[in-house]
Design a protein that fits this description.
This protein starts with 18 loop residues before the first strand and ends with a helix. The strands form five sheets. Strands 11-10-12-13-15-14-20 form a seven-stranded mixed beta sheet, sandwiched between helices. Helix content is about 40%, strand content about 15%. α4 crosses α6 (about 180-200). The chain is of the alpha/beta class. The protein folds into four domains: about 20-210, Pyruvate-ferredoxin oxidoreductase, PFOR, domain III (Pyruvate-ferredoxin Oxidoreductase, domain 3), CATH 3.40.920; about 220-405, 3-Layer(aba) Sandwich (Rossmann fold); about 420-500, no CATH class; about 510-620, Rossmann fold (3-Layer(aba) Sandwich). α12 (about 370-385) links the parallel β14 and β15. It is globular.
């Protein structure tokens, strides 16, 4: 039976010139229904056609049964930030189908499961009912397997309607079900059934099409958490202590998988690493700093609630100057908040973690490659400065699928910082004058005037290597002290060390165009910000751009603000935390230049959430 849709009923869509390689597809299903495989096959098939693409999964914080949405953006210009509206929608969830239809943009294509007995009500969208049950029954004889492959039917329907190459779908299925040939064959049969049904029954050409490009050659698709795990592997991580928490769990899971494959003794086959799933995040942090104190490269990964619990040990490590790397894959807070939504709300919490006067090094990747490279760099910085280092991702970067160039092989020597060995001590004793041979090492001395002390590792076989590690007041010789002068000397040296770090942390990405308007972003706001710059340019507003990659700010950040006229700081949090930090640290005379753009509804920021406030504020 052919389904004929009138141009009037479709809001005038039929017969319109098609939009090529520039639209978003959103799929609404039920969490735990197996839709993730279908969605990833869709994503990868479009990617294999050479079209720039990104995928974002919006899922509930329960195990199964609640609504989930997956959005794929295909864009010939390479824009991969979220769009506020989607041109194609696939509705498979009876609980949300009415709301899903209501929020569609005019001109959208609405593909829905007609088994749900839903009657479309919108006159300005193109509604396409598909009998998924009958289609999957025709290709899958075993009733218990039908639920597993039903979602593949919409892959086939979409392939026929918008022009996805079936050969690429078949190749993507082979990758998705690698080593499971029967599963791949069964799923492709469902795809083919959906494609054939659409070809036979849908007498309509939707105004959105995909055509082959050559913009993804040589690229990969990867999540930021996996990329960060690779960086940890290359950095020489040998101790992982963690407690599972969304959205950071996959970072440690991936790292453990890499360690089990690549960190085995070649002769015995035994592990040369240690992994502890601790009882909570506080314990995980204690294990990390204990292992780092002993000389291992150790890390943990968590999210905002875990950071709150880790603060006690973070303060201890800061004050006693112990390395350790903590990955914070941010979600929406405070408290439990929205565990499966994204935000940049932990910036201040990380920079000033723990009580008292503390300032920490925070690295802020925006892309999978940066997650990989900054993960590696975090360990070097942590050991050079003998301090906790945070790597601040967010759910959007950590758990979603991104295009990237293949990562470079990281083979530079590890920077362990100023570690004093037994041989060093013996040589110093030999060279020291009589009367000073017992004064060749002091744990917290400011040896070079940069605030960075030397350290020995526990077990160093020399009588002068030992010292007390204490979280109470101490002198340059690591002796207990409550004297005011000793305390102020100590915290001033820590501040001096922090100032030195400004020369070592990653420098910002800067594009200076000599424009009146400047944009400042960090993390995953990068994608929306770059698209927003093009949209603003199309309206006659040129922009300068700075993307901050680390705290503390490098000198170039202050220089950028100094030479700018108006500075729009883009934050994915309610309080404009980066804007506030800038106002605190730049020349006070430049503070009035700062204007805050804030996006904090838990959804990844889109370009228009930047463009619209800029246009509004530029009126005044």
């Amino acid at each position: 039976m052919a389904v004929t849709l009138s141009a009037t009923g479709a809001g005038g869509l039929l017969g319109r010139e098609p939009v090529i390689n520039d639209f978003s597809i959103q799929v609404a299903t039920v969490n735990g229904s197996g839709s993730q495989s279908a969605n990833l096959v869709l994503l990868r098939s479009i990617f294999r056609m050479g079209i720039p693409v990104s995928g974002k999964n919006l899922f509930p914080s329960n195990i199964a049964g609640l609504p989930t949405w997956f959005t794929i953006r295909a864009n010939k210009h390479g824009y991969v930030a979220r769009k506020a509206q989607n041109e194609l929608f696939v509705a498979m969830n009876p609980e949300t189908i009415a709301a899903d239809e209501a929020q569609l943009m005019p001109g959208a294509v609405f593909i829905y499961n007609s088994d749900l007995k839903f009657t479309p009500s919108r006159e300005d969208v193109l509604a396409v009912g598909v009998p998924f049950g009958a289609i999957v029954a025709s290709t899958c004889q075993e009733a218990k397997l039908r639920k597993l492959v039903t979602n593949m039917v919409y892959v086939g329907v979409l392939a026929q309607l918008i022009g996805i190459d079936l050969n690429e779908i078949e190749a993507s299925l082979a990758k998705q079900f690698k080593g499971k040939e029967k599963a791949a064959t069964l799923n492709f049969s469902a795809v083919q059934a959906g494609f054939d049904w659409a070809a036979t029954n849908l007498d309509v050409k939707v105004p959105y099409r995909l055509e082959r490009m050559d913009a993804t050659a040589g690229k990969i698709i990867i999540e930021g958490n996996r990329a960060a795990a690779l960086g940890c592997l290359f950095a020489g991580t040998t101790v992982v202590a963690w407690y599972p928490i969304t959205p950071s769990t996959s970072l440690c899971e991936n790292l453990i998988g890499y360690l089990e494959k690549h960190r085995l003794d070649p002769e015995t086959g035994k592990a040369t690493f240690g992994v502890v799933q601790a009882e909570d995040e506080l314990a995980a942090a204690g294990i990390v700093f204990g292992a780092s104190w002993a000389g291992a490269r150790a890390m943990t990964a968590t999210s905002g609630p875990g950071i709150s619990l880790m603060n006690e040990f973070v303060g201890l490590a800061y004050f006693t100057e112990i390395p350790g790397v903590i990955f914070d894959v941010q979600r929406v807070g405070p408290s439990t908040g929205l565990p499966t939504r994204t935000q940049q709300g932990d910036l201040m919490a990380l920079y000033h973690a723990s009580h008292g006067d503390t300032k920490h090094l925070v690295l802020i990747p925006a892309t999978p490659q940066e997650a990989y490279e900054l993960a590696y760099q975090a360990f070097d910085l942590s050991e050079r400065f003998q301090t906790p280092v945070f790597v601040m991702l967010d759910l959007d970067l950590g758990m979603n699928s991104w295009m990237a160039d293949p990562f470079p092989y990281l083979d530079q020597p590890l920077d362990r910082g100023p570690v004093v060995t037994a041989e060093d001590l013996a040589r110093r004793v030999e060279q020291a004058p009589e009367g000073a041979k017992h004064d060749v090492f002091g744990r917290y001395r400011d040896v070079k005037g940069d605030g960075i002390p030397e350290r020995t590792l526990p077990g160093t076989p020399h009588p002068l290597a030992a010292y007390f590690t204490r979280g109470s007041g101490h002198t340059s010789e690591a002796k207990y002290s409550e004297k005011p002068a000793d305390y102020t000397w100590l915290v001033d040296r820590l501040a001096r060390k922090h100032e030195t770090a400004r020369k070592y942390v990653p420098t910002p990405v800067e594009d200076w165009q000599g424009a009146e308007v400047s944009l400042v972003a960090y993390g995953t706001s990068e994608y929306a910000a770059q698209e927003a710059r093009d949209l603003l340019a199309a309206q006659g507003i040129a922009t300068n751009y700075l993307r901050i990659k680390a705290l503390p700010f490098t000198a170039s950040v202050k220089e950028f603000v100094k030479k700018s006229q108006r500075v729009y700081v883009i934050d994915q949090n309610r309080d404009g935390q980066m804007a506030a930090l800038l106002k605190l640290e730049i020349d006070p005379t430049d503070a009035p230049k700062i204007r805050s753009i804030r996006h904090y509804d838990g959804m990844p920021i889109d370009a228009m959430s930047i463009v619209e406030p800029v246009l509004e504020m530029e009126k005044h």
